[in-house]
Amino acid sequence: MPTQSRNWGGAGVIVGCAVGNLVSVTPVLNGTFGIFLGPVTYALGWSRTQFSAVLLVMAIVGVGGYPIAGRLADRYGVRPVALIGNVVFALCVAGLAVSSKDRALTYALYALAGLAGTLSSCLLLMKPISLWFPRHQGLLFAVTGAFGINIGIALMPFLAKSLLADHGWRETYVALGALTFLVGFPAMALLRDPALGKAFVLEAGPALPGLTLREARQHPAFWLLMGSVSLGAGSLSAMLTHMVPLLTDRGVSLNAATSVFATTALCNASWQIVIGAMLDRTGSPRFAGAFLIAAIIGLMLIGFAVGSTWLFVGAVLIGIGSGTEYGLLPCVIPRYFGVRSFSEIYGTIFGVSVLVSGFTPVLMGLAYDMRGNYDLALVLIGGALLCSALLLIVMPSYRPLRLAGRSTDAPGDTRLAAMTAH
């Protein structure tokens, strides 16, 4: 009976994390942004640059919000923080319906939504997986993240497009808020602390095995990882945000452009499973740099190729690149730094990448407003992806990190080696 209870608890965590990610801030707001871009800018009389700035506003509050959310989850547990966060985030999404020509009001509404979204975001929902399943973490991170965030990114634009056509953009935001609560709250209620995690706490005092954020910052791996993910995820975020308007500007129908976008999201989801399995079986993430080079090819195809076949090939390659970027963090953080401050370390790196992801869509919108096309922006994004790939290629191998004369897997703390075994 206890074994059956533990098995069900683990299964509930997988379901809760996957479904919770489906209605997190990335699918609900970032994933639908391209659908709202045209109608909202037309209704409010804004330029694309001005409306794209809401993503920057969300990113700025995320820089502080994600580490704080991670610290709260590390201290009080993921479940209570995520449940409260889901309720507040759902209300904030619905509140976007009152956006107006007053930019200060609209930016404030998005800032509140972005801050609330950090409390039920993927970085919190990944920690229960790291505690329940010390082996095959990469695969399970990919399953819960891919079939959560990325399936959400694929489905939300179609849902938003249908609602927008029948009811308008204000009512669509209210509907997305209701969906966020009705789907997310029951799912996050399934999250439970594992018996294994409790055993660690009882056995070794107040801390799980691993480094603190302050200790992690003393290692090159922390900064290389932050730089690579920030450049890669930031540049791909700009591309994904503007993909639908970029394609429709080139004469592609809205339905076809949405399908290309959905293909990227689905490939992102599928590829995270592949990259997670690879990371479970390799000694470093260096090999992943090659997949970012593939994304550069996809970027050029989306930007300049003629013919639907090449557009979908480009969508697949960009999906591979984005799947690599989004799948890296939860897989490699426990292997480099342990799980003691998993959420806080994840939140710090993720917060910086979100900040970059907030700037890049604005810059891409600005490039469009200045030149009337996205050509320069595509070249700059390709350069950022190349830099991201090079940073990954020089990442160190996974190994015990030593600090001030002691090691994270020193005698008496062999648990870290067990939890990060691959």
The number of helical segments is 19
Count of DSSP strands: 2
Low-pLDDT regions: 1-6, 196-206, 402-422
Structure classification: mainly alpha
Strand content: under 5%
Rg to the nearest angstrom?
21 Å
- The whole-number mean of residue pLDDT values reads 77
Any idea what the shape is? globular
N-to-C series of helices and strands: HHHHHHHHHHHHHHHHHHEEH
Q: Tell me about the largest β-sheet.
A: 2 strands, antiparallel
The helix content, as a percent range, equals: over 70%
Distance between the termini: 29 Å
Strand numbers in spatial order across the main sheet: 1-2
Model description:
A two-stranded antiparallel ribbon has the order 1-2. By secondary structure, the chain is an all-alpha fold. Helix content is 79%, strand content 1%. Helix 3 runs parallel beside helix 9 and helix 4 packs antiparallel against helix 17. The N terminus and C terminus are likely disordered. A hairpin with a 2-residue loop joins strand 1 and strand 2.
Brief overview:
The protein is mainly alpha-helical. It has helices at residues 2-22, 25-30, 33-44, 48-76, 78-95, 103-117, 122-125, 127-132, 137-167, 169-188, 195-204, 213-216, 220-249, 254-280, 289-304, 308-337, 342-371, 375-393, 415-419; strands at residues 402-403, 406-407. Strand 1 (402-403) and strand 2 form a beta hairpin.
